[in-house]
Amino acid sequence: MDKSTQTELEAAAFRRLVSHLQKHTEVQNIELMILADFCRNCLAKWYMAEAVEQGIAMDYEQAREVVYGMPYKEWKDKFQTEATDEQLAAFDRKQQAKL
Predict the structure, then answer these.
(1) ∠ Cα 15 16 19 (to 5°)
(2) Are 76 and 60 in contact (CB under 8 A)?
(3) Mean pLDDT across the stretch 33-41?
(4) Three-state SS for 45?
């Protein structure tokens, strides 16, 4: 596979992942962090870092809007729930296991 085709496939897979996350607003970031060790915010940080590396001016809020499909505050107000004590404990255990 040539590099251009690989890049096109990777970009398409990224767009599908972002679209999937935008459609599944019931999946909370804390759940993603517990299960996959990344969340929508991580994805936005990676996106922003790549933009900056390529000389494209982008801040974190702009990158989050790409990933969330709307301003983060709007998504948070509409879809984010408070993390439960169990979720916070699971997240803490995951972080401690990394040490």
Answers:
(1) 85
(2) no
(3) 96
(4) helix
